[in-house]
């Protein structure tokens, strides 16, 4: 009897290596948040509302740590420059200081020409800023979490994205944010954080996990009275506080500036109404076992409605687990 050779399946494809990127939660003098609406044809976050930001670029931002370099997942100058450059390219808002330490004020025509030249790599971004008499305001960026795209073979792109908060000074003269002409975005708008949250829950905008988590987090501080300075003080105090959660989990001892999150569904938690629970404590495969981590205590709960799944709201993990257990107990009695 002859044996037929067995056909072997295709080898499993390795997930993409995360590309270094950076984004800014840019807050106006009245603490409104800037979001950009991505085009439908975008290769990542299509049609979603996102913070201004994008990939690091060695020509503009300096040497980028390699895939096996631990610094690839640590905040540094390359990430800060990328965040400021991409914000300028995508919105026209230049976060650079003049010799007096004030935000550099340039005409709309000069900014438009600069956006085009930098986008087309005709001049390195720091050089262009220097030609205008300024320096990128990297010291004004407040690190607030890093996000690594979950490892999945069907994903064409993954990112290791450093997130920052930038508080525009109260004396800032409103330079209307403008999109990039439809290259990557169709709109660039400031609005109240509470409005962005409401629109997400009403399915009027799409928010992916990093934006949903961070906008929900910001929403805790920009409510109530219009004392914008006090709101900012509460936010900055929170970002600098350890422990970060309500339990003694190890991730609560990781400062917000150093937290790394790779969102995924919380195992074993199911709701009959279709709600999905997203955990944010896992740092992703690149950093497992390194001591890095995210936020064990808080999760995002996304509901399924007649118009699809909403962006989700933030809840304490212990409350969600208790609710899921209560639902299972009620079902068992039926």
Automatic annotation (TrEMBL):
GO terms for molecular function: hydrolase activity, acting on acid anhydrides, in phosphorus-containing anhydrides; metal ion binding. Gene3D superfamilies: Nucleoside Triphosphate Pyrophosphohydrolase. Its cofactor is Mg(2+); Mn(2+). Keywords: Hydrolase, Magnesium, Manganese, Metal-binding. It comes from the Eukaryota. InterPro entries: NUDIX_hydrolase-like_dom_sf, NUDIX_hydrolase_dom, NUDT19. Residues 17-214 form the Nudix hydrolase domain. GO terms for cellular component: mitochondrion. This is Nudix hydrolase domain-containing protein. It comes from Cutaneotrichosporon cavernicola. The lineage of its organism: Eukaryota, Fungi, Dikarya, Basidiomycota, Agaricomycotina.
